[in-house]
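A reminder before we start the practical. When you read a complex entry, don't treat the lines as separate problems. The point of joint prediction is that each chain is placed relative to the others, so the output describes one connected object in space. Small molecules and nucleic acid strands, if listed, are placed in the same frame. In the example below there are three entries. Take a minute to note the order of the lines before looking further.
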Amino acid sequence: MNNKTWVSSVIMLSVVWVSSMSAVQAASDESVTVYSSREEHLIKPLFQAFTQDTGVKVKYLTGQDGSLIERLKLEGVNTPADMFMTVDAGNLWYAGSQDLFQSVKTDTIKNNIPAHLRDPQGLWTGLSVRARTIVYSTDRVKPSELSTYADLALPKWKNRLCLRTSKKIYTKSLTASVIYNQGKDKAGDIISGWVNNLAATPNAKDSHVMNAILAGQCDVGLVNTYYYGRLIEKNPDSALKLFWANQKTTGVHVNISGAGVTKHASNVAGAIRLLEWLSSDKAQAIYGALNKEYPANPNIALDEVVSAWGLFKQDKMNLSQAGVLQAEAVKLMQIKGYR
Amino acid sequence: MLAVDNLSIIYNNNKVLDGFNLTLEQGEIFALLGDSGSGKSSALRFIAGLDSTDSGSIQLDGQQLSNHGKHQVSPEARGIGMVFQDYALFPHMTVEKNIAFGISKQPRIKQKKRIKELLTLIGLEGIERKYPHQLSGGEQQRVALARALAPSPKLLLLDEPFSSLDKNHRVQLVAQVRDILKQTNTTSILVTHNVSEANTLADKVGKILNKRLTIK
Amino acid sequence: MMGLLALVVAMPIIAVMLSWLLPEHELWTHFSENLLSSLIGSTAILLLGVGIGVTLLGTVLAYLVVMVEFPGRKWLEWALFLPFAIPAYVLAFVYLGVFDYSGYAQVWMREALGLPGFDIRAGSWAIILTFVLVFYPYVYMMTRASFKRQKINLIEAGKLLGAGPFKVFFKISLPLARPAVAAGLLVTLMETLADFGVVSLFNYDTFTTAIYSAWGDFRSIEVAAQLASLLVLVAFFLIYFEKRARGQAKYYSANVSNIRPYHPKGSVGWLITLFVFGIFMLSFAMPMLQLSIWAWGAFADEWSDNYIDLLISTSSLTIIAAMITVIIATTLALPGRCKRGSIWLKGMVRLATLGYALPGSVMAVGLLYGINQISVVNVYFGGESINHIIYGSIFLLLFAYVSRFMAIAYSSIDASAQQIKPVFTQTARLLGASRMRLIWQVYLPMMMPGILAGGLLVAVDVMKELPATYLLRPFGWDTLAIQTFELSAEGLFERAAVPALMMVAFGALIMMVFRYLDKKSYKAS
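Here is the predicted structure of the whole assembly.
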């Protein structure tokens, strides 16, 4: 005996303690539980407003998309999550393909969100639209020199291009759209061209790309517009501008953030209520103001900063293609040495 | 009092000590001489119950401790004390705590009294609160002796206890230890390779030669 | 019992190993054709550079601080521990903010000095330097302790034979400290191997890149786990080499020597001060200044009562995880049974200490899978799934911490157990002590310096931990590390500086407790 008893009593104690923790957790039923890969500071104000409007509390857990999907899968029927919220259509499509969502088709959602931003089977709903386009230095580039994503692969941009890392999902989805629009071979050439034109190792963040352009390390880059929005809000005099890519061809690559009701939700009614509310005018306006994204609901007036960038033609690629082609896109980038 | 019968020690499949027999009377001090590798320390460790071997029986005070190489009483319960070459005083305990370690079951007052008694015996009064690293080598050795004597062991084993001391201290300490052992009438076995040390301390001296013990 | 304990700790690692039962040839073909050779190359360069860097910097700093008298020595001896409190990814984002092409330093160089700008993320030197500056405290910490405990007579003998400070360093001190250097190096290399935050900020591809790509891009948790198991293998070899480097040498002697330091002549002392202070500036003071500037501007926006909750959950996770890890590591490291145990038992303990080389998220998923497998088996035998009790509970997160940080606690505690010579055990037994008494009154007090050091190192690491916490935490257990990550992921560095600074302050507090206990332990022994 001796140290055996000592260790086992410690383990027993911790088991008792854990069970008591779990008991506390399971107690609340009247709330909606959300797993979200959107960061806390972007979702908290929305959920607070929802609770004010409806009296329904929202519990949320943030995390990285891949990890949260894995957690949902493993939790299976026991998951506490009623809703999964994530960015990028690729993630939504993948969660749908893993049978993690249930179909939700209500009139409210149909009326608020255009069909191409929703899953055809109603598994997930887009809640905001983000455009990924060209940003350029107003000191060193004339807008007339710019045209398409593919154009940035031409030799004239040698040592003038900054890109975000290929590991970021936004890059993967954009590349998927290039494959979709131009075919795999052409897409491979475009990626090679980008890599050849890089003025710096691909950046970890969109904000780093813009800083590099401002500092003169490169002249053009690709960013999600809301990062530009945040920068310009803080420094309105920055010598940077957005250029809408592919306007004469397929249109600007857009993506969505969105959410779906989980397959094993325990509070389905509450989760649907939250989803409907998120598509409402009020919530959609908060979305735009918080993060300078485009509302998914087309009836909402744009945020002042955002509307200043003007209207643009969107790529009409069905967004689930971003998910279908994502693995292909990554392979291609890895083969062509786009880090 | 102590009877060791037919003890053999084997190193790497090589018998180094064979048919070791020894009897000691109460209070008798025996010194065991031998070259390194002669198995003298192993014999001591077998008597203490720390190591085992394939043949050898031990009787202490009428109790069978080991029989044909198998220990029947664990080291904790043998009532045998031991002093090691590098003293092995617990570094995190004061002198007082070190000495009390073997008599912790006695009432505190009795412990205190015993510690005082022992410190007087080893001639180191007033160092109760000191830590081992604050003592000289000779002082540490005497404290180790006091610690081993505290539970009044039936048999005391001393494994090269003086070898890390310098020569002057050694001569002085050997005589002092003999006095202490005689005063407490403790049956003892000393293992050493130093002949004069053995002669000064012991009543009876044995030497291991060609695997055999010869007693002078 | 001990074997079972080790087995439980090793469970996530075993789950990762078992992934080989589900081979996926297509993805492996793609990886081996297009990625692996270059990734192995870049990982090897990184490990080599970081290894050489931390060894040089860590040992030189430790030697200077212990053996040479220079102005400000007492103060700098402790200041050099502080970078340990800064999470590696925080240091990386500060360095990029300051030294990248668009950072102040380069802007100033170009504008004031007319020098050309450059891409610090190109090549490997900048990321190697970053890792060296953030991880040198491991080598410094362990080597310093070793220098302090080196037998004074050896050094005095060297001095009497006419050896100068350089010769004493290379011929006596360094060879004696080799086991400590190797231990520090091992921890550094394992942590570098598992890093995801720094490499992604630098966009530097290592082996973890392939793991994340398999998981994130190709949705193959199996291939991710298979790749991760190769990391475990590398860790295994690193540990093997560390053991060999340690050899039969004792980790450190139990006694502290009163080493009389060298007194350098003239301005040499001040030059040394300049060097050591420079390292302190670069690795701690400058990043703290930058973080403070950022935090100053964003504090009003960012601060809310929420931070009190973050602080409470961070500190309770830190303390509880450190305590559990230390208790288990101590049980495994106790002299006696386990050490004399079978090969199986020793192998289990080895396995239980390999988790440090796994990226936190892989470890976390391995854990989820392991639990799931137990449920599957349990259901098969007519029992119930335990998933719903375990998933999302604090128990799971603590489990992950224990598995991941066992290596740190164990190596520190085991080192202190190594110095308990068998003769202490024998003495205690002959004095009639039971095993229980032996543990409480002899082993634990003698292992205490190692237990404390191990516990504090684990605490700092738990505080900084991100990926496993992010994936496994229950509701309401957000930590400062998560807050820092979420804000910086969106490029909001100014706001991210607020929780980052709080983390560093908390870590510095832990280091101060360490300092206090360390001083006490030197006094007592």
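Discuss with your neighbour: Chain B has a mean pLDDT of 90. What might explain this?
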